Backbone:
């Protein structure tokens, strides 16, 4: 399928404006150029990037009302999926990108600059240090192909300032909650990308919970 048609279909499916479509085009071009210098993703052909990076991130908007969300944080964002993708679609969001790799941080900075995105902060702290040293008003964290849920659940420690936030985790077909995860699973949403089953897992902490095991 020709690139122009792919972009048109993508824009129509996710209700993008002409400006947003142009931002996604620029994002894709920056991704391909940077990927020739260092490894950001093994997926670079247009149809696959649209499906497995962009669409896979945007599907979240079919299950959560993003218009009621003010700030999100993307843990181990890498090349910016899903954080930057959601920011393009929902420009009102304040976004925190958590990434420790210096080259990836440079790439993220270039995307934010070239797409003229505002209210985007890049945090180079590792996950555990971020939880101890920061105090943002984050509605939910998202994690896609980064840390294991058992590690992410540290945010629900009663002593953590973020224990009242939610966590959205991108899970594959074979995902099953561990014993440690089970008390925190609030909802799951199933969807498919190119007929491949995927699941969003929403984690949260009830007020009656005690300490999260280390």
Residues:
């Amino acid at each position: 399928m020709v690139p122009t048609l792919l972009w048109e279909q993508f824009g129509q499916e996710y209700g993008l404006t002409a400006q947003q479509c142009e931002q996604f085009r620029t994002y894709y071009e920056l991704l391909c150029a940077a990927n020739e210098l260092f490894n950001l993703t093994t997926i670079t052909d247009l149809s696959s990037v649209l499906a497995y990076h962009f669409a896979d991130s945007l599907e979240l908007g079919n299950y959560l009302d993003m218009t009621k969300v003010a700030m999100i944080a993307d843990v181990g964002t890498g090349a910016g999926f899903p954080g930057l993708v959601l920011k393009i679609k929902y420009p009102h969001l304040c976004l925190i990108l958590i990434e420790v790799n210096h080259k990836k941080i440079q790439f993220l900075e270039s995307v934010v600059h070239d797409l003229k995105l505002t209210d985007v902060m890049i945090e180079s702290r590792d996950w555990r240090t971020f939880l101890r040293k920061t105090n943002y008003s984050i509605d939910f964290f998202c994690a896609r192909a980064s840390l294991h849920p058992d590690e992410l659940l540290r945010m629900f420690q009663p002593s953590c300032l973020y224990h009242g936030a939610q966590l959205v985790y991108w899970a594959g077909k074979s995902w099953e909650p561990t014993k440690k995860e089970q008390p925190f699973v609030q909802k799951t949403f199933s969807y498919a990308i190119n007929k491949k089953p995927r699941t969003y897992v929403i984690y949260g902490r009830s007020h009656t919970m005690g300490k999260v095991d280390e």
